[in-house]
């Protein structure tokens, strides 16, 4: 037939196919590496930001619990550094990095003295137990 292809007449086709698949595999590996590098980059950035100030809050501007926790800190006389993830470049990636690190998907995510304390439940529990103010004093965020 006119359109019949004899593969034995073109032995290099299988080699080209192999090279194409091999190249595709390496491209996928590179993409996975870049994604993992970016994930680590954002996690490194989270810890860098958390270490720069005594109290760091990763928040969302529309989150009522975020507002409540920020208000609690303000009522203590603490001026936390707040990163509104829905307003900063890379906020979504930081949110994903926090989730991968074990911070719950609910916000806020609070760091005190560079350590991940947790979200609203953890902060309110510490406050009700009376231990939040001690943590804030030790971090240098509260002087009373």
Automatic annotation (TrEMBL):
CC per GO annotation: cytoplasm
NCBIfam families (UniProt xref): GlrX-like_plant
Subcellular compartments: Cytoplasm
Source species: Linum tenue
UniProt keyword Cell membrane present: no
Family: Belongs to the glutaredoxin family. CC-type subfamily.
This protein's UniProt keywords: Cytoplasm, Membrane, Redox-active center, Transmembrane, Transmembrane helix
All residue ranges annotated as the Glutaredoxin domain in the record: 55-117
The protein, known as: Glutaredoxin domain-containing protein
């Amino acid at each position: 037939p006119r359109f019949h292809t004899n593969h034995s007449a073109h032995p290099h086709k299988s080699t080209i196919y192999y090279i194409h698949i091999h190249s595709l595999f390496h491209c996928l590996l590179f993409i996975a590496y870049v994604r993992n590098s970016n994930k680590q980059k954002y996690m490194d950035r989270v810890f860098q930001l958390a270490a720069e100030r005594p109290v760091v809050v990763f928040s969302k501007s529309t989150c009522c619990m975020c507002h409540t926790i920020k208000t609690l800190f303000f009522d203590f006389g603490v001026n936390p550094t707040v990163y509104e993830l829905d307003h900063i470049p890379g906020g979504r990636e930081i949110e994903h990095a926090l989730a991968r690190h074990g911070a719950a998907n609910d916000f806020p995510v609070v760091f005190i003295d560079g350590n991940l304390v947790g979200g609203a439940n953890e902060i309110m529990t510490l406050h009700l137990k009376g231990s939040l103010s001690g943590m804030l004093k030790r971090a240098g965020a509260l002087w009373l």
